[in-house]
Amino acid sequence: MENQIERDILTIEKEIDEAIENEDYEKLNQLLEEREKLLTKLTESELKEIYERDQQRMKVLEEKMKEFKETALKTETGKKMVQSYIQTESKGQEIDRQG
């Protein structure tokens, strides 16, 4: 039975890493909930290993969040530039029509 639990937790741990890599945060949340149910059955050393892996995962997630924020900022800047261009073009067409 213990080997079955260990294999299950290892599978879940692998899938957690894959979900982070693939930025599938919905699946990540499901896996974390699933893993939580198994934690009470693990040894102290297994829990320490999971904690250490989670610390590394947090670093990866923080980096992804930083990249996401940068992308969002660039997108917002691009959007403003396009809106400005559209407004300028639109004013030019009004002048041409009145012209």
Automatic annotation (TrEMBL):
Keyword Nucleus: no
Residue stretches in coiled coil: 2-71
Subcellular location field: Cytoplasm, Cytosol
Gene3D superfamilies per record: 6.10.250.50
Assigned keywords, A-Z: Bacterial flagellum biogenesis, Cell projection, Chaperone, Cilium, Coiled coil, Cytoplasm, Flagellum
Pfam family, one: FliT
Chief place where the protein resides: cytoplasm
Listed name of the protein: Flagellar protein FliT
